[in-house]
Amino acid sequence: MPNATPLSDADLQDALAGLDGWSHTDDQLVKSFTFTDFRAAISFIVRLSFYAEELNHHPELTNVYNEVTVALTTHDAGNVVTDLDVQLAEAIEEFAWA
Q1: Which of 23, 41, 48, 96 is 20 to 30 Å apart from 65, CA to CA?
Q2: What does residue 18 show for φ and ψ, rounded to 5 degrees?
Q3: What pLDDT, in 10s, does the model give residues 38-97?
Q4: CA 92 to chain centre
């Protein structure tokens, strides 16, 4: 299981370097995904739910028509970014456009 220790600034910058389009905002990793339509956006959310449940790590999701915004933070670590958030962001990147 990933470490629930808050990432250092250097570790956070290293993680972001490998996560295209993700940003660190308000102690969260955040990215918006735009799909062709509502159905594709909801399909993405459903696929994401399987990865999140597998990690027992549940993101904040916002959906408006074809856009889904994902915000990741680790509540058990005091609402900061940890390896767990990075691992889920990496998994999302792997399946988002599959």
Answers
A1: 23
A2: -100, 5
A3: 999 999 999 999 999 999 999 999 999 999 999 999 988 989 999 999 999 999 999 887
A4: 7
